[in-house]
Write a structure and sequence with these properties.
Structural class: alpha/beta
CATH topology of the largest domain: Protein-Tyrosine Phosphatase, Chain A
Number of strands: 14
Oligomer: single chain
Strand order of the largest sheet: 8-9-10-11-12-14-13
CATH class of the largest domain: Alpha Beta
Helix content: 25-40%
Radius of gyration: 23 Å
Distance between the termini: 37 Å
Shape: globular
CATH superfamily of the largest domain: Protein tyrosine phosphatase superfamily
Length: 423
């Protein structure tokens, strides 16, 4: 499934489907629960409007202030849509004018708690509306202006009631980072080319949601405790309704994987795959990749100097990897006896089980086809879980490189792994 749905004007429209429950038996059903930036950017008769209507959405929950709607518009009226304006925020603040010294994590987490306690009437109504739509099998979308803060808060509550674990909720919040550049460009266009004074504008660092959930838990014991104590709802009944309507068994069969070598036209998609993987890591406290570290030029260069491969399942991009023919930074000068696998990455919650192992096998097959007898790769010495994964795929630790550099920052230590390939 595609989580991010592409529109010309909307920047942050995504399907909350596909997130797994912690026991791995169920997932959020795709095509029923959406979150977005302002739907006031949709115009009847446009391609965007046709795309939106094709989703079958029947309920729109607009979380903005009435004055925002008056200024920026609302979703166009249509016989298929029921519209609700539920302004959950009661203390407006202007993020663009904040000073650079303000840390986004603590600051926004405090604002989220204000919303949670000021907006109990509207949040209760939003959750009841979402539950009613789910019970009726009607797709629903909720949104604010950028689809980040107010939208992220409602998404977190719904996902928690569905039983989705905290790291995944944090990850979902942080996925707005993939839209930040476009949201910022739109802001500049609306403001004569100016730049927000606050560097945190449009950003969605994992710390915001992590701190908010911690504060909510400290005050109420859990999200369910907040729903019961602050909102006055039967949390168990609400959760049961949402789970019955919005969860489904995880698939037991998946589309077959297909592989093709990437071209320069794929560079933007590769950046997005890597950034999604980076956000998945950060949401789980893995300090390895950062969004934005590798741009399109990086992947184009790797295509020219080696190969980059894409993996699809049912026409959906689910993974990628780089294949190098030398790697002196990690391995030093070597004869042409190996292929070096880098940036093996899968799309979280979308790639079929076993995709990573299948990509390794495909990369090894490509190396063998060139007559090279070894596949080599490295992983951070501080990531024993990844090392164990590669060892389970037949790779052996053959050394350490204590000071690898890739031109992007300080040297770092990596474990070197190698696999002898059968001709």
């Amino acid at each position: 499934m595609e989580r991010h749905i592409s529109f010309d004007a909307l920047r942050n429209f995504r399907d909350l489907g596909g997130y797994p429950t912690p026991d791995g038996t169920h997932r959020v059903r795709p095509g029923l629960l959406y979150r977005s930036d302002s739907l006031g950017k949709l115009a009847p008769g446009s391609a965007d409007w046709d795309r939106f209507l094709a989703l079958g959405i029947g309920t729109v929950v607009d979380l903005r202030y009435p004055w925002e709607i008056e200024r920026a518009g609302r979703v166009p009226e249509h016989p298929s849509l029921t519209y609700h304006n539920l302004s959950i925020e009661h203390r407006p603040y202007y993020q663009a004018a904040l000073t650079p010294d303000i840390e986004p994590g603590p600051y926004l987490a405090e604002r989220f708690m204000e919303v949670a306690e000021d907006g109990v009437k509207e949040i209760r109504a939003a959750l009841e509306t979402i539950a009613a739509s789910a019970r009726a099998g009607t797709p629903v979308v909720f949104h604010c202006a950028s689809g980040k803060d107010r939208t992220g808060e409602i998404a977190a509550l719904v996902l928690a009631l569905l039983g989705i674990d905290e790291p995944t909720i944090v990850e979902d919040f942080s996925l707005t980072e993939l839209a930040t550049a476009d949201l910022l460009a739109d802001w500049r266009n609306r403001n004569g080319g100016a730049t927000p004074a606050w560097p945190g504008w449009g950003r969605a660092p994992a710390a915001v949601m992590r701190l908010f959930l911690a504060a909510l838990t400290e005050r109420y014991g859990s999200v369910e405790g907040y729903v019961a104590q602050a909102l006055g709802l039967d949390a168990d009944a609400l959760a049961a309704t949402l789970r019955e309507a919005l969860l489904e068994p995880r698939p037991t069969t998946w589309p077959p994987l297909t592989f093709r070598e990437a071209t320069e036209a794929d560079a933007a998609a590769l950046v997005r795959v890597r950034d999604r993987a980076a956000l998945w890591q950060l949401a789980r406290g893995i300090d390895q990749w950062k969004p934005g570290e590798k741009d399109e030029a990086h992947f184009v260069r790797r295509m020219r100097e080696g190969e980059v491969w894409l993996t699809h399942a049912g026409g959906v991009l689910v993974g990628a990897w780089e294949l190098w023919w030398s790697d002196e930074a990690a391995w030093g000068p070597r004869p042409a006896d190996a292929g070096y696998i880098h940036r093996l990455m899968t799309v979280p919650h979308t790639a079929p089980p076993g995709t990573g192992r299948a990509m390794l096998a495909q990369a090894e097959s490509r190396i063998t086809a060139t007559g090279r007898p070894h596949a080599r790769l490295d992983c951070l010495s501080t990531n024993p879980r990844l090392r164990a994964y590669y060892e389970s795929a037949g790779y052996e630790v053959v050394g350490e490189q204590p000071a690898k550099t890739d031109g992007g920052g300080s040297p770092y230590a990596v474990t070197l792994l190698e696999k002898r390939l059968s001709p």
